[in-house]
Amino acid sequence: MEKHSYEIENLNLWYGSSQALHEIKMDIPSNQVTAIIGPSGCGKSTFLKALNRMVEMVPGVKVAGNIKYNGDDILSSKYHPEELRTKVGMVFQHPNPFPKSIYDNVAFGARVKGIRKKAVLDEMVEKSLKRAAIWDEVKDRLNKNAMGLSGGQQQRICIARAIANEPDVVLMDEPTSALDPISTLRVEELIQQLKEHYTIVVVTHNMQQASRISDRTAFFLNGEIIEYAQTDQIFSNPKDRRTEDYISGRFG
Amino acid sequence: MDNAQKTETNNHRLLKKNGSSSKRNESRGKVLVYSSAAIVIIATLAITIFLGYKGIRTFFVFDVNVWNFLTTTGWDGTENSGAFSFIFGSFAVTFLAALVAAPLGIGSAIFMTEIAKKWGQKVLQPVIEILVGIPSVVYGLIGVTVIVPLLRDNVGGLGFSLLAGMIVVGVMILPTITSISADAIKAIPQDIKDASYGLGATRWQTIYKVIIPAALPSLMTAIVLGMARAFGEALAVQMVIGNVKGLPESIIDQAATLTSIITLDMPHTTYGSVHNSLLWSLGLFLLIMSYVFIIIIRVVSSRRKV
User: Fold this and answer.
1) Yes or no: is domain A4-247 CATH 3.30.420.40?
2) Which of A111, A125, A171, B109 could link B181 by a cystine bridge, Cβ 3.0 to 4.6 Å?
3) Which PANTHER family does this UniProt record tie to the protein (chain A) (predicted)?
């Protein structure tokens, strides 16, 4: 049987009095790339942020339902969001390195957890940068400020920073929307390599990207899941009329 | 048709731009702005030159030794006067006040921008704006009637002391430091805070590992601006510090500052006398120090990274 990183049931979410997510039910398989597509404002980013409870930082948000991560109920008050976020990494829409050195950026998560030993940190920084396919470009300037890198390099530093925590899930919120085509290609290739070690959930505006990189695709519309299936099936043979309209470019 | 209309409006615009009335407006605005800038520069230069001329006279006309003037104590209004105790007093009040105000100011700035955003911006921010606007004589009055007796009864000495100066000036510069620090912290992009939370950092870890380091150059600027204000403060300090011309031996001793001695002595001197000239030299020293503070601020804020 397929192993699931996330099992989500009856997930409802409100910002104040407006409901952003309706009765979401979704299982996210481990070590696969799951893409979430849909027009702006359909709740796909909100859903992603619910998976590591970052959505709770928005004032006035209310979450109800069931999100099981590796079998644990993460919405329970006993579950600490900080603990969850060390296991579920996140990469954001705009590259957001800290105004610190490349080394300090990647070592940030470990230092937060209280790891101080230089040898351990060194090894972890190298391993993460290698996995994020940026080691060769930055190995001679680890002490330089990460803000001095190009946008594509910064985004791969952010991916390295997220995987340095040794998470088992990496959430990506439109990770290439601020990048040029060549950087986008590199990040897409990287996502393909990363799924060997991590479960990846990626929100994207770009349908070609979803079809290129993902194993499964969920189509969101107005806060509901319209269709969730194998990516080839969604793109070649969508069951729902609205999915078909969206992927053929008739709206959104 | 649409295009024809567009060209027409374009032509119209071009015609109007070339019209003589808008040209006149253009040059009138130019004159206004240029002359404002010129007046500001001339005023600054004039003050500097005038104070420089007056202050330097002491050393050339009255043959006062610069080194003696800066490093010896004993102020009697003659050529042998030394200003060291006032220089020391000014620096002592400034640094002690910053020591009180910097942690409190940065702490409350963090509180109002990161911890209690709503409450902080609704209540704390207006309170701080009011504190900035209170005239220094009011701080001095409160210092004399509340702080001085309190120190006399609980700490010892006369109450009029460096310590009283430190408290009064510290409270005075607190709002300056708080409001500039709060602006600096607010300017940290949400992006990098999200990155920190996303990596499992708690709010406190995010504050001291991400927000404070990123805002540090601006926080330093806030502290130096506060110190510049403390260094130049005259009235409130003069009311609580005791104005004794010797060097203080402890924090509860009376002292004097450059500013307080200028305001106190100036009415008792005759124009053109040594004593009068010495006070001008103290003024020149204050001016030089304010230039130094500005240079420090420039250097510190040029290191800003975000």
Assistant:
1) no
2) B109
3) ABC TRANSPORTER I FAMILY MEMBER 17 (PTHR43423:SF1)
